[in-house]
């Protein structure tokens, strides 16, 4: 009798522990405590619901899109598509310098809002800020078409008075392989308010030493606690 009760009790404890384990796993995944996807470019707009945009020398000439490479989501319907230019899933982001509507602009940038647009009547436009203070790193992958392409990570918070980046993080020149970038947010924290992050982007223009027609691919932007 005692033995049977003991066994049932042990099984009950086992089942209970198992449910707890599963419960905790699900919760971690649902809330994304360890990492949050900012942009995988598989859906629209970005994974946080914010707009994406390309400006300056990166602005595409859509009339030429069948024959001239352009800055935008790189996907199976893109002319000349090759899956080696995608790191995860079927889509990445392609940046093309100075082949669009502003070939002589000295700067070019790609920008991602951290949340939905709230007010477009002010400058910079107001968006739903993202609290990145619980994460140690911003990580993503990049790959050049030729190698040697130069990019910089740029960030802006809700206190910014203009669209000029408040924090810039230079990177080694791209190679023709996919390279992982790990930006330590502790460094950014000295210049921007991570509690109300509004925009994360990439600078990729002539001003960084890029030639006309330089191409770089980006994929899988995440906020994470592990490198
Ligand atoms: Ca992707």
Write the SSE topology.
Elements: H1 2-31, E1 35-39, E2 52-56, E3 72-74, E4 92-96, E5 108-113, E6 117-119, E7 126-127, E8 137-144, E9 152-157, E10 167-170, E11 179-184, H2 185-188, E12 197-203, E13 215-224
Antiparallel strand pairs: 1-13, 2-5, 3-4, 4-13, 5-12, 6-7, 8-11, 8-13, 9-10, 9-12
The structure holds calcium ion.
Can I get a quick summary?
The protein has 227 residues and is α+β, with helices and mostly antiparallel strands. Helix content is 15%, strand content 31%.
Descriptive account of the structure:
By secondary structure, the protein is of the alpha+beta class. It folds into two domains: about 1-30; about 35-225, Galactose-binding domain-like (Jelly Rolls), CATH 2.60.120.260. The protein is about 15% helix and about 30% strand. The strands form three sheets. Strands 1, 3, 4, 8, 11 and 13 form a six-stranded antiparallel β-sheet that branches. It has a five-stranded antiparallel β-sheet with strand order 2-5-12-9-10, with no helix packed on it. The protein is globular and about 40 Å long. The site of calcium ion (CA) has 10 residues, from strand 13.
